[in-house]
Amino acid sequence: MKLYVVKDKATMGKKAADVIAAEMQTTPHFVLGLATGSTPETCYAELAKKNKAGKISFENVITFNLDEYAGLPVKHPESYRSFMDAKLFKHVNIPMSATHLPNGNAPDLDAMCEEYEMMMDKVGGVDVQVLGIGRNGHIGFNEPGSSLASRTRKVKLTKSTKEANGPYFKAPDKMPDYAITMGIGTILEAKKIILMACGDTKVDAIAAALEGPVSVTCPASALQLHPDVTWVVTKDAATGLKMEWPEQD
Ligand code: F6R
User: Fold this and answer.
1) Residue 137: CB within 6 Å of ligand 1?
2) Residue 13: CB within 6 Å of ligand 1?
3) Starting from the edge strand earliest in sequence, which strands make up the sheet with 178-181, in order?
4) Chain centroid offset of residue 5 CA
5) Helix and strand counts by DSSP (H, E) for the chain
6) What is the pTM (predicted TM-score) of this model?
7) pLDDT per position as a tens digit, 98-141
């Protein structure tokens, strides 16, 4: 486990993009797991910059997003497909057919979730999974109480997540109550994980995830069980950490 405490969101994005780019350059058919939300925006901008400068190519990259709202039209500005198009896919040379998000409008959501997992397996699994963290410690939309062995499935969103994400919707009451998310067990199968966190609203979640017991009360604490997790955390999000962490190069 590596922890980088950095000064701000821009530095966090640069550091995360450097880690991802290094993996991309050494893995021929790279499978990238993606997250949405405000946290990874600077990282995606950096990846787009590196792509434009010819330092990395997305030509042979396949992506799988962690989650998507259930029942929200894919063209809705707050759908995670719209987010990914706007923040990353439109700015890099990735074939759109290589980008995958759970289909929150599938007629049979259980079958869709099973198929989503099968598609990831078929391409050899996720090489690097990008994560943010919710104020309540969620990863993807695995809210507190999610089984640490959970798989891709439909979930009900908590009040705290609706309060955090609701303001992005024009009418907060229009935010869906349900979402599809990769499970914690699914996430833990990624070969490498990089979690970014910024801002003082994440202090408790970061402390519980890194230094608390592994528990369903903080889904991100399950990452303590993974052998290769890099945490890139801004200093204002790291103020709740008590341990003396080794400095990283
Ligand atoms: C979204 C996702 C969520 C977010 C989390 C933090 O794909 O996986 O777990 O990472 O809700 O959101 P932000 O970054 O907006 O604070």
Assistant:
1) no
2) no
3) 67-69, 178-181, 153-156
4) 19
5) 7, 10
6) 0.97
7) 999 999 999 999 999 999 999 999 999 999 999 999 999 999 99
> Is 139 close to ligand 1, i.e. is its CB under 6 Å away?
yes
Residue with tokens 């809705």: 76
Tokens of 82: 């719209």
Q: Is 177 a catalytic residue?
A: no
C-alpha distances (whole Å) from 41 to each of 69, 160, 167 are 19, 22, 18
* pLDDT of 150 over the 90 cut: yes
Question: pLDDT band for position 172 (50/70/90)?
Answer: low
- How many whole angstroms separate alpha carbon 54 and alpha carbon 221? 37
Is 108 designated active site? Answer: no
Residue nearest to atom 15 of ligand 1 (CA): 37
Answer whether 12's CB lies under 8 Å from 6's CB. yes
Indicate which atom in ligand 1 lies nearest the CA of residue 142.
9
* Phi, psi for 115 (deg, rounded to 5): -65, -35
173 among known catalytic residues: no
- Contact of 4 with 196, CB cutoff 8 Å: no
Question: In the annotation, is 68 catalytic?
Answer: no
